[in-house]
Amino acid sequence: MNDGTQDGAQVSAEATVPSRVNDMSDANGHRPGEASGRPGEASGRPGEEPNGTTKLQAAGENPIGGTRKRAGGDIWRQPQAQPDAIISLHGVTKSFGSHTVLEDITFDVPRGKITTILGPSGTGKSVLLKNIIGLLRPDAGQIFVDGEPMVGMRHSDLYRVRKKFGVLFQDGALFGSMNLYDNIAFPLREHTRKPEREIRQLVLMNAELVGLLDHLNKLPGEVSGGMKKRAGLARAMVTEPEIVLFDEPDSGLDPVRVAYLDELVLTAQKETGATFFIITHNITSVMRVADYLGVLFRSKLVAFGSRHDMTDSENPVIQQFLAGRSRGPIGMDEMAENNDLPGLDTNLAETAGVPALT
Predict the structure, then answer these.
(1) Pairing mode, strands 243-247 and 165-168
(2) How far is CA 315 from the centre of its chain?
(3) How many CA atoms lie within 13 A of 197 on its CB side?
(4) How many other CB atoms sit within 10 Å of the CB of residue 167?
(5) Distances (CA, A) of 72 to 47, 54, 120, 347
(6) Residue 254 banded pLDDT, cuts 50, 70, 90
(7) Between residues 320 and 63, which one has the greater pLDDT?
(8) Residue 68, SS3 per DSSP
(9) How far is residue 301's CA from residue 297's CA, in Å, rounded to a whole number?
């Protein structure tokens, strides 16, 4: 997301110490993401993990449950969402004019894990992030955050749910006229009534976590790009959010600084227990930090699953992207429709190793 500095900082600052909310239940008394217990929807079906989810969740699957017809007319019962999903996307579609950026995106983000979303440039990764936090509204579909439906939510409730988030933008989105200390303290001063002594404790604690204690009096223009990213991460976490969103955090960093940042991400997630959701196209970084990952291609979700299952996938899009090869269905022009290799099955769900949906 190429947000302006002050706008980006303001959104990132909309996180305060989160409070739990009541779970929403459906007509049958089930919470979103909770297994219904009906025969055939519990764990134990071929290809499922013990919690009842398939190893790879492909484009078009419905995390809320239900059935669709396969090609050929037989019925395939769709998998349930992970009971521990903190974010669930169901059929999310977003267009700008005649251009569809996201189409029928469906997957669950596990609570307390590091999830990454990958894909070629221009596939809608940053637009997906904006829809999750409510800066954009999907044209179709629903997004649940901690069980609450975001689409159609009143502005006051949306503001409340946003307090569960911290955000690290591509450029850090720091205020150029504030030193690093005041940048990190900004969301606490703007959105809480904490006394300055408590704010100082939180700022110093997070500055120490990201290795910036000796640089807090410096302005953003006086520090390196890596230090700006670390200051942005400290600010994103200073309000103790349940979810931290990263929009290409390694953008503009050299490989060594990226490795340090990855170590910091792992340490911070372990220390806080928060859910980290990372938009990136850095494969090396993903292999170091991700618990789960999904791949976007041509506005659609190719598949979503654990890092192990995705790296073992036989899907040609996933294989090409993770290997960084030039030959494959991903061409130079993401908008082109003729990038497929001869004989390539363009049904992304089927090539992901899961049943095709019609």
Answers:
(1) parallel
(2) 21
(3) 0
(4) 28
(5) 21, 22, 33, 15
(6) confident
(7) 320
(8) strand
(9) 6
Q: How would you class 84 by CB atoms within 10 Å of its CB: exposed for 0-12, middle for 13-18, buried for 19 or more? A: middle
pLDDT at 220 over 90: yes
Amino acid at 212: L
Number of Cα atoms under 13 Å in the Cβ half of residue 53? 24
Q: What is the dihedral of CA 56, 81, 85, 173, to 10 degrees?
A: 60
**Cβ-contact 294, 114 below 8 angstroms:** no
Q: In this predicted model, what pLDDT tens digit does every residue of 113-169 receive, in sequence order? A: 999 999 887 788 889 999 999 899 999 999 999 989 999 889 889 989 998 999 988
* Cα→Cα distances 217→39, 95, 205, 264, Å: 61, 43, 15, 21
Q: Are strands 114-118 and 275-279 parallel, antiparallel or unpaired?
A: parallel
Helix (H) or strand (E) holding 75: strand 75-77
Q: Under DSSP, is residue 316 helix (H, G, I), strand (E, B) or coil?
A: helix
Of 64, 66, 91, give the one whose Cα is nearest residue 76.
Answer: 66
Instruction: Report if pTM > 0.85.
Output: no
CB atoms within 10 A of CB 86: 23
Task: Kindly state the percentage of the chain with pLDDT values over 70.
Answer: 69
Amino acid at 331: G
A 10 A CB-CB count for 96 gives 10
Report the alpha-carbon angle 50-308-32, nearest 5: 45
Of the ranges 15-29, 43-57, 127-141, which is most confident? 127-141
Sheet containing 275-279: give its strands across: 56-58, 300-306, 292-297, 114-118, 275-279, 243-247, 165-168
Q: Which of 129, 119, 128 is nearest to 348 (CA)?
A: 119
Burial of 27 (0-12, 13-18, 19+ CB in 10 A): exposed
Q: Tell me which residue has tokens 């939180």.
A: 202
Residue 58 confidence class, pLDDT cut points 50, 70, 90: low
